[in-house]
Amino acid sequence: MSVLSKNTIEELILPHLSWGKSGKMSDPAHVLCIVQLIFHRLKTGCQWRELPIGHFMDQPYSWKSVFYHFNKWSKDGSWLCVWSALLKAHKHRLNLGTAQLDGTHTPSKRGGQAVDYQPRKGCKTSNMLCIADEQGIIVAASQPESGNHHDVFDIETHFEELITMLKLIGIETKGLVLNADSAFDTQTLRSLCAKHEIEPNFDLNPRNGSRWDRDDYFDPIAYKKRTIIEHAFAWLDAFKALLVRYEITARNWFAWNLIGFTAIFARKKIR
Fold first, then answer.
1. How far apart are CA 48 and CA 27, in angstroms?
2. Would you give the DSSP letter of residue 115?
3. What is the pTM of this model?
4. Which domains does the chain show, CATH number per domain?
5. What is the tens place of the pLDDT at every residue in 4-45?
6. What torsion, rounded to 10 degrees, do the Cα atoms 80, 163, 135, 222 define?
């Protein structure tokens, strides 16, 4: 089972990972096998110790070493470099006529950082805010937040994280139309959008007054595209490692999501 072809991994992934200068980790073929095993776990969600090492490597190798490299690349920011470099190099393939903002709650079975009980889901969850283009390609994501909070909790921090990621891949925020449901219709978020010259196209929340008495911009035709981000979340759920969170550290959980974003964009746009 292969998420990405060997040629795609060699061309798009390996150049942005930190390599050793001697021993096995100086061999591109060896690093390729490690990355293939990591993508295998992304797809299947199998336990690290159940990785089919023999399917990808000719010589004995420890699953602990595969995890070591995944964790190392998570710590040093390599996965973020892979994803941002891919988007930046192929930014022309994005469709940012509108952008879609939403949060995603993922059940967590082991607890850990940025995890807490979410009554609506009936379990402990971890939340992230994401922005997608009109094709469902994730172009920005915030750091994980514990699921006992609503989507606009600490929105100043998380929205700036999203803006930082957009700038990292060279996306201009000025004039960007941002669709979001009524949960995001807050004065704080509207002020943040104004700060970055983003046009908020938020469904008007009746708790903030009748839509007929408000002069906030709302384009119902453009808003119909908001559901595209739900497609993006469904594509991510096809990766079993992202369907349920087992990672203890928020850093590694974020890294898995970055790997998922990378796989989806690479498969859909790089042929």
1. 23
2. -
3. 0.94
4. 6-76 (no CATH), 86-269 (3.30.420.10)
5. 999 999 999 999 999 876 667 778 899 999 999 999 999 999
6. 170
Task: Provide the b/e sequence for 139-172 (b: ≥16 CB within 10 Å).
Answer: bbbbebbbbeeebbeebeebbebbbebbebbebe
pLDDT (tens digit, 9 = 90+) per residue, 98-145? 999 999 999 998 889 999 998 888 889 999 999 999 999 999 999 999
As a three-state string, the secondary structure of 144-210 is CEECCCCCCCCHHHHHHHHHHHHHHCCCCCCCCEEEECHHHCCHHHHHHHHHCCCEEEECCCHHHCC
Residue count (the chain):
271
Structure tokens belonging to residue 119 = 């009554």
Whole-angstrom Cα distance, residue 7 to residue 9? 5
The amino acid that residue 56 corresponds to is F
The sign of the torsion formed by the CA atoms of 41, 249, 78, 152 equals positive
Around Cβ 4, how many Cβ atoms within 10 Å? 20
